[in-house]
Specification:
mainly alpha
Length: 41
């Protein structure tokens, strides 16, 4: 089951720029722990 990111079009665009970059990038992703409860079980 694939999860999607809702309401974050500017962040998604920025992440895609980093992913497609020819340079190394460091990206820190943070958020609430409760967001992952349904995924981790």
């Amino acid at each position: 089951m694939e999860k999607s990111i809702i309401g974050r079009s500017s962040e998604i665009r920025l992440l895609n720029e980093y992913i497609n970059s020819d340079h190394s990038e460091f990206i820190a992703v943070y958020g609430r722990i409760a967001c992952w409860q349904d995924i981790l079980g």
